[in-house]
Specification:
By secondary structure, chain A is α+β, with helices and mostly antiparallel strands. Chain A has one domain: tRNA-splicing ligase RtcB, CATH 3.90.1860. Chain A has 16 helices and 19 strands. In chain A, strands 7, 8, 9, 11, 15, 16, 18 and 19 form an eight-stranded mixed β-sheet that branches. Chain A has a seven-stranded mixed β-sheet with strand order 1-2-3-4-5-13-12, with helices on both faces. A two-stranded antiparallel ribbon of chain A has the order 6-10. The radius of gyration of chain A is 21 Å and the shape is globular. Chain B has 184 residues and is of the alpha+beta class. In chain B, strand 9 and strand 10 form a beta hairpin. The relative contact order of chain B is 0.21. The chains are: A alpha+beta (486), B alpha+beta (184). Chains A and B meet through strand 4, helix 8, helix 10, helix 13 and helix 15 of A and helix 3 of B.
Amino acid sequence: MTQNWKGSLKRVDGNCWEISESHGDYMRVPGRIFASEELLDDILSDNAPQQVANVASLPGIVKYSLAMPDIHWGYGFPIGGVAATDPDRGGVISPGGVGYDINCGVRILRTNLTLPEVKTKLPELADSLHKRVPSGVGSKGPITLDSDALNQALNHGSAWAVKEGYGWDEDLEYTEAGGALPGADARKVSAKAQKRGFNQLGTLGSGNHFLEIQVVDAIYDEKAAEAYGLEEGMVCVAIHSGSRGLGHQVCSDYLSVMNRAIRDYEIDLPDRQLACAPLNSREGRDYSAAMACAANYAWANRQCLTHYVRKITSEVFGASPEDLGLGLVYDVAHNIAKWEKHEVDGEEKTLCVHRKGATRSFPPGHPDVPERYREAGQPLLVPGDMGTFSYVLAGLEGAMLKTFGSACHGAGRRMSRSAAKKSISGKELKQRLHSQGIIVRAASNVTIAEEAPEAYKDVNLVVDATEGAGLAARVARMRPLAVVKG
Amino acid sequence: MVNKTADQKKICKNSKGAGEGTAGAYRIIPHTADTGLSIEAPSLEGLFFQAALGLFELLTGVSCGRSCFAGSGVVTLAAADLEGLFVDWLNELIYLLETEHQYTIASSLSVETAASYRGQTEEKTNGKTEARADRGVRLRAETRSRPVSGGPSVTSEIKAATYHDLRIEKDTDDVWRATVILDL
């Protein structure tokens, strides 16, 4: 149930609000929501703040249960939730802190094309991408793996895909974690999850997953944009997808395991979707190894999608992907738990950082940022809705100080899918977007209605709050030209 | 008596004649990012039966009773407790959709509960999912199915049923009620 939060939140500063530990006796630390006053009404209108409080119950949680400016009601964690846990203080790992679509994430490819050069070809490109990149529920991809190949993909992620010819060597450098989490062990992935993974590489999925042709329409930081290889007027391609059915099954499998574990380890939680196990326990280690496999599968999937986007674009424009300059700007994960070093009360600690609908935001100089981008900071890719803008941001030191190196991952929903379907006509919306110069290709008008711009918060406000909180800074803004939805 | 909304009455009509174990009603409930089902039934089995019908409507946007399903099969599951079994049931139907490319509901099912807690599942390779529980909660369902290729098509991908805000309870009026949130 929703409740009146207005009196329960203490303003820390212009873009940060605190939920006191006294809100619930289960809270081990306070909650902190990073948002402007303008965003707060939407945030307080559903159960997301209660979920921030619930996450504060996790054993070993460090400092705060955090929420990014695009926070909205999820399950277990809120979407936009971040929590770091300390293995030395009984810290846990929670599948609900990663979600079902493990390593759902986004990447952007640049091109050396400008809008006038692509304008007449855009309908053909959108049609080809829609027709040839498999999407929808359980869609079968162009790649069928045997058991050995699947194990390789699970253990090695993007590197496996590139080795098989689905990408360029340099793609690995511009993918978070190099496109593979360490500690992956395919033996910890169930037969059911593996069965779901044999033929889904190179598939987009449905819901909010998409391919989008964009044009850079504003540059805010010339130096960082130059480092990222972005220029005003440049056409780019964004790819948003995840670990497909394999990841969903890994999460389901381990939620069952964790729901037994919380009884064995006597962990009391306000929401069973937060079920967890100590990082140092057998259950915690097993989930960590399986989650890494699913994360690697997602990176392999986005790598294969990249290959097909390059191939199709190359055919439409009659030039090689290299000649079109289809290099990877960056790839970021949205749903993941990672071991990272962070300073806590003056001491460097190795923590497990859960990001559920949140993006890593590492600042200039961080060793995990690719060398070419190190002076600028890590790129964050923040898709808006299909009618407005997307942003490329750069990580800031403030994120290390306040959010364990995390920031927003998108606009964030404000309207349920059923409400969107009831109030918006997919057909009319498609026409409206067309009149704005945006081509939309989707499996159905229902999907278009569900993903309508009105169903999302204003991404400009989300980015304002992210920047205002010092978590990341604007580098470039993209405008959609063509959107392909699953 | 189950207090039915207009939507529920429509769905109930589809299960007319299905028998005591399958009677009940479901209602789709809104959620900002995801979706949910609220179910009422005079029996525990009815909750599971209606949940499968509700899942089919969430996936396709079409409400349809068991007469729409022809194929047959068996699903057995075991879990630590009732909530786990309910989530596992819906997730098994999602698994069958993705791997067998078929919509599945129950034609008849039984749920056995035990006072003690401990469950374990295993999968056999004969095309059916089998399970074992030393103690805990078990389900055996005779299923009906229809291929996705024969329509209706899937309009919303559902990733999984979740434990968030999950409630299964028998009220003082002897009506079983469940709510479940599903990840889209």
